[in-house]
Amino acid sequence: MRSLLLLALVSATAYASFDKIKDSIQNPLARGFGDDIAWVKWEDAIETALDTNKPIFLLIHKSWCHACKALKKTFQQSNAKKAFKKLSEHFVMVNTEDDDEPFEEEYRPDGKYIPRLLFLDKNGDLLQEFKNKKAEYKNYAYYYSSPADILNSMKDVLKHFGVDIPEIKRGDKLKPKKPEGKKKEL
Asked: pTM for the whole thing?
């Protein structure tokens, strides 16, 4: 009986470990920020954005950073996952970690702090007007600690380019918003 119980425990542990490994193999660019998101390598982002005529969502974080880990955990546990997935379809999604971070100063507009979330046009140029409106610290305008603030900025970027975005309400399914006018060129 003990052998059977031990075998069941070992099997359950192995299955849970395999599930985590499988997820990282399925989408190694997700790095815990959504395996169902179509993440793109930074090296491919501008070419992809030009081909698809989409703005770029650039997340810069480090594997050792406590604030980055907290943001990742918040995303994994939040109800915002569905909305994030839906809005991400309108962006070229880039998730850089550790040495993948772009080295150009343009991507450090107010410092090298992490995590930073930048929105870029299809040419890779920073859209400086899109910052965290609820930033806790003025010198860290591209720092986000809440999924809700990230979603709000994503919606603002899409509105700027005239993209029809889904209406997002708590507990509701995502509903397409009625078109308001012409799309701006990215």
From this structure: 0.75
